[in-house]
Amino acid sequence: MVSFKQALNILEENGKLERIKNKTPLNKIPDIIRKAQKALLFENTTTPYHVASNICTRDNFCTIFDMNWKQIQNKVITAVNNPIKPVIVPENPFEEAELDLRKLPILKYYPSDPGPYITSGVFITECAERNLSYHRILVKTKNTGTTRICHRHTWQCYTKNNKNIDVAICIGLDPALLFTAAISTKEPMDETEIAGGFYGKPINMVKLENGISVPADTEIVLLGKLTPEFDEEGTFVDITGTYDGIRQQPVVKVTKILRQKDNPIYYALIPGRGEHSFLMGFGKLPLIYMELMKVCNVKDIAFTDGKINWLACSVSIQKRSNEEPKKVIETALEAHKSLKHVFVFDDDINLSDPQDVMWALTTRFQADKNLYTYPTSWGSSLDPSSEQGEDRRLTCKAGFDCTIPMSKNRKDFEKVT
Question: How far apart are CA 252 and CA 235, in angstroms?
Fold first, then answer.
């Protein structure tokens, strides 16, 4: 197990974290984060809290878990198939803080933000099943905010219970919980069980007064309710680096603020940048991979759309028939509903090398034969080029078969080195 604080220590020991000891006003922090190449820990924020950022990156996760990227992906797949239930521990590590969100180092990340945003808050709900998921919160008063809830598990729990449910909002979690909270499985799963499966042992949880259990080493916990009241939320700079629109969204009312007794750390996850896109993509790749394994011999899979990690992916396969790439495309689109483009390559193409990918697209793809289009499909609400809808947008999805035809001489398509 690796707590949030332990993860910071591991990164520092490996030269991947910078401590900023000078007094740093909150309004200066976002610009420093955007320019940083390392993880950051601000130790003098003019608040009782340290602020950490730039934690969740591919390189950092490999360092924190002491694995290469392929090992991490495979272990996540194993964890989804072999979950381990958490355990409730009797010790309560939290102390109560003043009930005032304005005393937390909640940041306004862009001049266009309508107010300070909690961007790393992982909501825990316990309806039929425990669920962990990210939902941003636009802070409105000392104990209320509006929170963007997509129409998935949290929304289903909320609407089934007369739009009035207890929640616990966790800030600063074990890195395994940070990535499992981003996973959206086909069937509801308790993400603490996936994290347990990742570690091979159960996550320790503490049951709080509203009946919801939270990971024992969470840095900050906001207890509260999702209420029937709605208010304006947005604009917000989302994963694509473009504005997500203004919506009427549920009001969350915070009833208590809890924090670790020893130097609590606030996790500032800057929107529209690396950590944001990495976490969203991390939660989808293993699920796409699991579905593709059923229909083809997958070599590798990667998101390929300019660090957005959401709208397009590439797959390399050991091709067995000319019909296989189309099946790969349709399986990937079904596994991740927000995907817009899928590129299929032979197993000699290095998906982590943009030049290799573009070379194969240029030399092995013919648009009149190898392009599959799916007009009037439901896509991502984050894609500004699509037609707006209620919660998703209509788009034309496409698949690109960039593989060598079985009838052709493979040698004619191989790059001479």
Answer: 18
Asked if the model's pLDDT at residue 385 lies above 90, the reply is no
Query: Which residue do the tokens 């009427």 mark?
Result: 248
* Active centre residues (catalytic): 238
Q: Any idea what DSSP says for residue 202? A: P
Q: What are phi and psi of 36, to 5 degrees?
A: -75, 150
For residue 274, the surrounding DSSP H or E stretch is helix 274-282
Q: Which residues are CB-neighbours of 187 under 8 A, at least 6 positions away?
A: none
Answer yes or no: are the C-beta atoms of 416 and 408 closer than 8 Å.
no
Domains recognised in the chain with CATH numbers? 4-280 (2.30.110.10), 297-413 (3.40.1670.10)
Tokens linked to 354: 């943009």
What's the number of CA atoms in the CB half-sphere (13 Å) around residue 132?
25
Cis peptide preceding 376, ω within 30 of 0: no
> What percent of the chain clears pLDDT 70, i.e. is strictly above it?
98
Judge whether 239 and 279 are in contact, CB under 8 Å: no
Whether residue 390 has pLDDT greater than 70: no
Q: Which pLDDT score, from 0 to 100, does residue 392 have?
A: 59
* DSSP line for 112-171: T-SS-EE-S-EEEEESSSEEEEE--EEE-SSSEEEE---TTHHHHHHHHTTT-EEEEEEE
Residue 193: how many other CB atoms lie within 10 Å: 21
Query: Tell me: the pLDDT tens digits for 209-222?
Result: 999 999 999 999 99
Write down the residue that tokens 């080493």 correspond to: 217
DSSP 24-60: --GGGHHHHHHH-SSEEEES--SSSSEEEES---HHH
Cα 98 to Cα 256: distance, rounded to the nearest angstrom: 8
Residue 246: closest CA among 106, 110, 387, 112: 112
Q: Which stretch of DSSP H or E encloses residue 371?
A: strand 371-379
Q: What is the DSSP string of 312-325?
A: EEEEEE----TTHH
Closest CA to 93 of 333, 264, 268: 264
Compute the distance between CA of residue 277 and CA of residue 56 in angstroms, rounded to an integer. Answer: 10
Q: Show the tokens assigned to 33.
A: 């984060």
